[in-house]
Design goal:
Length: 126
């Protein structure tokens, strides 16, 4: 083996090891798909309003519909989509079902989005 080839093989080994290490910590295709679904769910203004409301309080469909000035059917439809995406959860109390965020991270992500939107709005005014 020529000296140049030997140097190239030696220098390629750390790069190959770095690539293997990087592949181990990157998200899987399934995790990326789950993230895309979550962002897709949060991209809808109505669902985002529901998430924003549920950050403040656990509510039933009737109360959410009243707060959002929407029909109970329309709210139920959006809640089903959010529930299927595991962004919200529910608990039953007698005949009523109460909805809340499934995970505090959903609320944190929403808060960060609100702060970002407000920062952009303020900077455009100045």
């Amino acid at each position: 083996m020529a000296k140049n080839e030997e140097i190239m093989v030696k220098s390629a080994e750390p790069a190959a090891q770095a690539m293997r290490s990087l592949r181990q910590i990157l998200l899987s295709d399934e995790q990326i798909a789950d993230m895309a679904t979550m962002f897709k769910m949060m991209a809808d203004p109505t669902r985002l309003r529901i998430i924003n409301t549920l950050m403040v309080s656990e509510l039933c469909v009737r109360d959410l519909a009243e707060l959002m000035q929407m029909s109970q059917s329309a709210v139920s439809h959006q809640l089903a989509a959010l529930r299927n995406s595991r962004l919200i959860k529910f608990r039953r109390e007698g005949k009523q079902i109460f909805y809340s965020l499934d995970d505090e991270h959903i609320g944190q992500l929403s808060i960060k989005s609100i702060i970002s939107a407000l920062t952009i709005e303020i900077s455009s005014i100045m």
